[in-house]
Amino acid sequence: MNQAKKIQITLWATLLGMVFCFAQKKQSEGDVLFFQYEYQAAVRAYEKQLMEGTLTKQQFLNLADAYFETDNFEKASEAYMEIYGQDTLMDPHHYNKMLQSLSKTPNVAEMEGFLADILSTFPKELKENMEFNHQLLQDGSEEHQLEYEIFNLDANSAQTDFAPSFYNNKLLFSSGREVNKKLRYEPGNEGYFNIYESEIQPSGQVMSLHVFDEVEDTDYHKATPYYSPALNSVFYVVSNTENGELAFDSNGKNALSIAKQTIGGSNQLLLKDLSTSFYYPFYDDTNGKLYFSADFEDGYGGTDIYYVYTNNGQIMSAPINLGPRINSSGNEIAPFIFEDNFYFASDVFYGLGGMDIYKSSIEGEDFGIPINLGDQINSAYDDFGLIIRNEGEGLLGYFASNRPGGKGKDDIYGFKVDEKPGLKTITFKGEVVNAQSSAPVPNVVVSLWDMDGNKVATTTSNEDGEYRLEIPYETDVVIEATKKRYSRYIEQLGVEELKALQNQSYDIGILLYDDLVEEREGQKVVKLNDFYFDTSSTQLTEEIKTELNKVVDFMKAFPEAQLRIETYTDSRGSSTSNFRLTQERSDAIKKYLVENGVPAINILYTIGYGEEKILNNCTNGVFCLESLHKQNQRSLIVVLNDNVLFD
What we know:
With 647 residues, the chain is of the alpha+beta class. 24% of the residues lie in helices and 32% in strands. Strands 14, 15, 16, 17 and 18 form a 5-stranded antiparallel beta sheet that branches. It is elongated.
């Protein structure tokens, strides 16, 4: 570390030590600017407080966020690291911002060390998502990438253009291009966002651009439209107002609400909270769910994606978080569903840049691992708001990006492609259960292997025995499930089995060793019902074969077990003939087991004990009931290595 860097970090630490001694409750100029999204001005105000020694811990965190929002990632990472080292104020969302900041500076080693420290605090799904996307983006996934024809729309302006949405054969979108020069949105130094409509041409370009006048008029933000054909309505966000003027909460924050405009009909405000903004509505015509983004306190990071149940667009439930498979420690926005695939944008730290677009398969009420769409749709900048539809023999789509080469701050890009964006994957999900009792088995290690013997994915079943694995597409896969004192499950699946597997549960049954053995006569034996040979016979009856089949199954489950077959008879008859008879019966049992798949090498001994070990008083010359004699007629399958089998 050079001397200048040392001095800078020392100065930060000294100032932070001072400022945290002067906590103030009164809202400062920096707070007002910060909550009004004027981040550059907030930086100046907070830095002044920092030098004066009047900055609270929360305000210093706000300053770090303001650095982040103004792309000053060097200062943002230093501030986040200072807070992380001295206080517990940071949450997973700020960890995500810190990781993003570090990734955009030369401090790669610092980022990797920090990630190793905090990864255990993240949900299991986030770690799986990260590892899966690292694998996709680093191990030659380019060969599976689609060929896109991507083009910048001629209708883009020098201001912000984003949030495209299909409206019959038109395209709606949001723009900060000025309409009323007296009303300006200061943080963006442009006009308040408005909704525009345009005609889609066969090329994908648009023309006949004008303000979309079907929604209720306001001087402030109208943005991110989504048109529902089923309801003939547009869902969009609008600034909170009272009596035609902006409405602010106690922190001076103006938030966004979600409205619904029936084309040619009424306008309704659906979701409103002065302190919480709602973003990017998407209405699913198939089930009446209204999806949106918001930053609620119960979220996983920053802005999460939620949905509410509706009745023809009327809210019928509290917001429901999509969960940690979709939502991360970052911000998730812009949900869109196309043919059982859920598209959205996220700035989670393991992406290619700022916001990246991801695709997740919809699996009933669950979602597959979100897959980064790769470096054609995504870039090192912000890419978000993807929509797509079938067009001729291919697909037509649009998204927004602030990548270099555009006309303004954010531009809308069109694209054409032959297939749905996103790599093809295979999903295994289901329950691991006890094959005898059907009870769920937790903590089972479930792994997938390719045909070269490489482990490609692994997970552990949860308390309910549930597991889930997703991997890039393979034509042949081996699945394995293991847990100590349980049987090993292993199965190879080819193309047809994998095809049938999609969108279906793949349940795994394993056997508990302790369910299959018992203690008898001071030794561990395979648990069987008592069975009897006919008098003086060595022939196996169907009843005997039924019991011996349990031994075959036991050995399939625990192929390392070593067996000794012991057979006994009662005291009737001569001891010599009884000895010979039981030996032949033990040999007959071994012959059957070997013929049915038990390796001969696993049967170390076959012994006939004759009448040597009588269990009761029915010895030679003693009268006994038949039932008492039968107690002495028995065969045992002893597990010789029971005490070391699971070492």
